[in-house]
Amino acid sequence: MALHRVNTDDYQDQLHAKAKRLAEAYREFTDLEPELFPSPPIHYRLRAEFKVWHEGGVAHYAMYRQGEYKKPFIIDTFTVGSELMNQLMPKVLEAVNSSEVLRKRLFSAEFLTTLSGDALITLIYHKKLDESWEREARALQEKLGFPILGRSRKQKMVLERDFVTEKLDIDGKSYQYKQVEGSFTQPNGHICRSMIQWAKNACGQNSNDLLELYCGNGNFTIPLSENFEKVLATEISKVSVNSAQENIQVNGINNLDIVRLSSEEFTQAIDKVRPFRRLAHIDLDSYSFDTVLVDPPRAGLDEDTCAMVARFPRILYISCNPETQLENLKFLSRTHRIERFALFDQFPYTDHTETGLLLVRK
Predict the structure, then answer these.
(1) Where, by residue number, does S-adenosyl-L-methionine bind (predicted)?
(2) pLDDT digits 0-9 by tens, 141-166
(3) What is the pLDDT of residues 3-38, one digit of tens each?
């Protein structure tokens, strides 16, 4: 995040300028104007990492300006961070500066919060964490009412838990998610909720099945499972797969299977190039897929995965990088047209743009 204080008066103008640039970039593939999903102008970011800058024996939160990574600048507030994050930041810093054990060789502090009011604070050190650190950290944990986690090289000290629990209301129903520290979660909870609602609406109710690649902790998968007969989802991260399995159980979903495979591996599996033991309990031939959901990393879809998803009648493509999505569209537009087009403003006041496309076979 480039700014810790923002001018909210400019937000709507910035959003519409972003939408205009996006529409122009996609004009080769569609005449649609993007559906706009704005973020709250402040307090929208649920997770953040701060450098801890030591000066005169006092620790401060610090950040780097974009393009300037040699000297950080000290901050005393973080307007874009959630209200809970802003409540916790000064309390943590006060405790750190009151304890040499907590302050010494502390170089980073991470805050993970949720819309539902949960939080986890991770303190990261250039030293081994011992019993004296644990005592001080437990005292801070009790004072805050939220868990503290300590990290150093090859060491992770969990005092209570290493995750938060998020609850999202989607179309009048509440979904619960376990979000583990260090694993990927959507940073803007309000936009996350909008993305899921948009995806459910774009898919509609179906009598066939859904395939999802890059499913993470089941963020999209679990709500969308109610729109399809069966769902098969893949994810390469073991931590995310384990979280997704727990999230499936706590939300009472019974038509969804998640397997730990990369998109490249699943492409090999569905093409019967080679078998995978992780798919031994899955009968791929029993699925009647008509929709595929992809939410790839910034690199977009690799060539083989792009060719595989092009076989589906409908492709729901969520992207955090329009440049690579546009590159994939050069291939996908041969067989599909864009029926829905959305802009999700995940990071206001930046050039970052998150998009959603519903592609249907021509």
Answers:
(1) 186, 214, 219, 235, 295
(2) 999 999 999 999 999 999 999 999 99
(3) 456 678 889 999 999 999 999 999 999 999 999 999
Task: Considering the candidates 229, 265, 320, 339, report the single residue annotated as catalytic.
Answer: 320
Asked whether residue 148 falls in the same domain as residue 55, the answer is yes
- Answer with the one of 130, 164, 198 that is the final residue of a domain: 164
DSSP letters, 173-195, are: EEEEEEEETTS---SBHHHHHHH
306 is catalytic: no
224 shares a domain with 139: no
110-136: pLDDT as tens digits = 999 999 999 999 999 999 999 999 999
Burial level of 51, CB count in 10 A (0-12/13-18/19+)?
middle
Position 338 in a domain = yes
295 in a labelled binding site: yes
Shared domain check, 196 and 140: no
Residue 77 is predicted with a pLDDT of 84
Closest CA to 213 of 290, 298, 309: 309
Active-site annotation holds for 131: no
What is the per-residue pLDDT across 310-355, written as a single tens digit (0 to 9) for each?
999 999 999 999 999 999 999 999 999 999 999 999 999 998 999 9
Structural domain for 114, as ranges: 47-164
Q: Is 66 annotated as a binding residue?
A: no
CATH number of the domain at 289, please: 3.40.50.150
| 176: in domain | no
Contact 348, 41 (CB under 8 A): yes
Query: Is 186 flagged in the annotation as binding?
Result: yes
Query: Residue 3's pLDDT is what?
Result: 42
Q: Which two tokens stand for residue 54?
A: 């030591």
The structural domain count of the chain equals: 2
pTM, rounded to two decimals: 0.92
Residue 27 and residue 83 share a domain: no
